[in-house]
Amino acid sequence: MGLLLISPWLVGFLAFTAGPMVVSFLLSLAKWDILSPPTFVGLSNFQQILYDPLFSKAVYNTLVYTVVNVPLSLTGSLSLALILNRRVPGVSVFRTLFYLPELTPVVAASLIWAWILNTHFGIVNYFLSKLSLPPVPWLESTKWALASLILINLWTVGGSRMLIFLAGLQGVPEELYEAAALDGASAWIRLLHVTLPMISPVIFFNFLLGIIGSFQVFTPAYVITNGGPADSTLVYVLYVYRNAFQYFRMGYASAMAWVMLLVLLGFAWMQLRLMQRWVYYEGEVRT
Amino acid sequence: MQRQFLVVVLVLSLVAATSTAVLSPPAQAQAVTVRMVWQGEANEIKLYEGLAAKFEQAHPNIKIKLETVVASSDPEYFQKVLVIAASGDYPDIIYGHYSWFPVALEKKFLMELDPFIAKAGISKSTFFPTAVEQFSANGKLYAVPRETSAIALYYNEDLFKQAGLKSPNDYFAEGKWTWDTYLELAKKLTTDRGGRTADQTGFDPNSIVQWGTIAPVNMPYGLFPVVYSYGGDILDKTNTACRLNQPSGVQAIAFLRDLVLKYKVAVLPAQAAQTNLFANGKVGMMAGGYWEIVVTGSAIKTFSWDVAPLPKGKIQATRVATGAYAIPAQAKHPSEAWEVIRFLSQRDNTMGLARLGLIIPALREAALSPEFLAPGKTPLHRKVFVDALSYGRLDPRTPRWAEMVNTIGSEMDLVWAGQKAPEVAAKDACDKVNAAIK
């Protein structure tokens, strides 16, 4: 019975996730241009990765994106959740408003953002000009483009990650705050010593998802800048996409995808190890 | 209770799904279905459905199945066509732009059409020679050209009149339509908030409200025609070595850089496209293909506009690109597919498509007909597109096309941003392109 009930998911998993993964692993050991049959080439795809300057560029861009984006968006959503966790009239309206960006299709939002950041007509540069500042080429300069993509991503801080934080915050027992307050702990101390440890599993969860999500960033880089200018927003997945579907190097693209999977697994494993130092689960006693 | 209900629903829907599959009537035995993979927007789909119905009436044993692929760009379209083909489920006809042809050729993916053409008694010279050449290899034709297009220069007539300037077509008639003239016009058409033009002292490049031109630097149809007109090449004649770094190529790139960075009379295409700058009357001149007549022209409500040939560098040049119908080598019904292609390529049917405004027929008598040239209709000088076919050039033929375009584009971005000198960027681009195409 149980199996039958989860069968849609199970079939979906086998057909659309596990199956393609096996195939892509086999392809990572082959050369395949889609039109002619694949030929086995051993590890040469992986070897080629080592000498591909665009690969290192894509890795670099993705790392910069992740290192800047994850802490920013994490603190952003946590702060927002803390603010929206107060019992004030109309708070649910604000929660809804802040969640709204998450409901906007990424492509549509990306196009709107391209407008907002337009060098000559964008509203951001309009305000800058009111302050007598020169226009910033947000999306046309190699210095700004990646930063702009990170900024754009921040507009969804009120989305699902904030919601998860909010749920975590509401699970913190009221009496802990009360006890701390009685002991004379300030709001800041209560945040540091009650709230954060209590929601540490949630922080951990969002942190891990944030890293994975950042490594997989694709849509804004594809839609807004298409990797440019001068490959400054060529992120990892975009380069995989180009190799697979524009240059028809399926084998090479598969190898890149597998390298990414291994790196992400490594990250997750490292996090799980580190987690024991700072994540507390309910009722857990640490000495 | 709820759980049981769910199971019942699930089982019922499964039963329903399988039974419709079993009970649906078997396909008609004799009729052959020709599957055509193509792309088209709503009006084109309507037109083709009508053509298909007409064809089926005349050929009761052939059915046409139009499989419209939705794609936002040529590479994306080609990618989807390839995936369809890779599944082993070969369509009988593939319509496509030239950029996919080199790969198809390299993989021997397409059928030679010369036997069909010979049998039908059709002369290749009924099409524009560049269109035929683009889909030929070793003298054999692999696709029947449907439409062809050249890059020309659109201009805002009102802005020219307001500035008291002669139009590009006037300069062309006098034989003075060069990139230098274009630059001088662009300076006079670029104005800042204070109303000063780019050639006046006190001009503020940070508060430009109207641009002389959109920098023709799009990859590939902006940059390549300029390189061609400066007498340069992208690749050598055998398509095995990059030639962009030769003096004429570098000269073209330097000219474009100066438009953007030195004279500040050109806005980069990405910014212009977002705001539909030309259609909003904020740009004097814009290089573009025939399709812009519909894409941009239909959005223009408040001013009059026209087209002129691209300015001349060392030579009068532009870039020509073609779209065509091909039959995969593994198609199941090649002779029926040929009948369909022949039907679609007839003058009246290709004119039906031309009437929608998006294409120039590759069939010469159609493109040269008074109906197509539509005298008296905006843009008045639309014949420049057809004339351009005689001096236009084809892009180099390489299966690494997408990679080449991306590679050159990335280096050029650095030039337009002022971070790399034209000769350095051209050399770096060529080094990378050479590595990719070897």
Q: What is the fold's blueprint, element by element?
A:
The complex is a heterodimer of chains A (287) and B (438).
Chain A: H1 2-5, H2 7-27, E1 30-31, E2 39-40, H3 44-50, H4 53-84, H5 91-103, H6 106-116, H7 123-130, H8 145-154, H9 160-170, H10 174-182, H11 187-198, H12 200-215, H13 219-225, H14 236-246, H15 250-278
Helix pairs in contact in A: 2-15, 3-15, 4-8, 4-9, 4-12, 4-14, 6-13, 10-11, 12-15, 14-15
Chain B: H1 2-23, E1 32-38, H2 42-58, E2 62-68, H3 74-86, E3 93-97, H4 101-106, H5 114-120, H6 129-134, E4 136-137, E5 140-141, E6 143-150, E7 152-156, H7 157-162, H8 168-174, H9 179-189, E8 191-192, E9 208-214, H10 223-229, H11 247-262, E10 266-267, H12 269-274, E11 283-288, H13 292-295, E12 305-308, E13 318-326, H14 334-344, H15 347-355, E14 360-361, H16 364-367, H17 370-373, H18 383-391, E15 392-394, H19 401-416, H20 422-437
Parallel strand pairs in B: 1-2, 1-3, 9-10, 9-11, 13-15
Antiparallel strand pairs in B: 3-13, 4-5, 6-13, 6-14, 7-11, 7-12, 8-9
Helix pairs in contact in B: 10-11, 19-20
Concise description?
The complex is a heterodimer of chains A (about 290) and B (about 450). Chain A is mainly alpha-helical. Chain A is built from 15 helices and 2 strands.
